[in-house]
């Protein structure tokens, strides 16, 4: 299975998270509009990535004749549902600049939790899942 697209999207996502981090460090209140634009942009890319994983990657892994690959695919797919829901709830709470500007520390705190989990997930996929997908 060719997973170059998934790998490239992970790189793009980490670049986008870096850009968001820079905006936050420059001042949450001052850059609330740009932060919202970055979140909305990232969310579109994340939704497309997750949809491709659900339609292509996970079914291919689960259908593998290798029990380790099939089980790993199932586990990653189940775990992703929770993280995706957490991320989408985060974006729903913070998709208005005034909400971010009114509670910059609340935004920072929640963003740190959500993006740490997202980063951890990307690393796990890169290190554990994608090498297995390369074998399918």
Task: Report on the architecture of this protein.
It contains five helices and no strands. It has 136 residues and is mostly helical. The radius of gyration is 16 Å and the shape is elongated. The protein starts with a helix and ends with a helix.
Write the SSE topology.
Blueprint lengths: L3 H23 L5 H31 L4 H27 L3 H6 L1 H32 L1
Largest sheet: none
Count of folded domains: 1
Structural class: mainly alpha
**What's the total helix number?**
5
* C-alpha end-to-end distance: 5 Å
Instruction: Note poorly predicted spans.
Output: none
Q: What radius of gyration results from the CA coordinates?
A: 16 Å
Q: How much helix, percentage-wise, in residues? A: over 70%
Indicate the mean pLDDT.
93
Order of helices and strands: HHHHH
Share of β-strand residues: under 5%
Number of strands: 0
Q: What best-fitting shape do the alpha-carbon axes yield?
A: elongated
Organism: Dyella japonica A8
Protein name: Hemerythrin
Domain Hemerythrin-like: 3-133
Pfam family, one: Hemerythrin
Please supply descriptive tags for the structure shown above.
136 residues; mainly alpha; 5 helices; 0% strand; Hemerythrin; Hemerythrin-like
Could you write a compact summary of the structure shown?
With 136 residues, this protein is mostly helical. It is built from 5 helices and no strands.
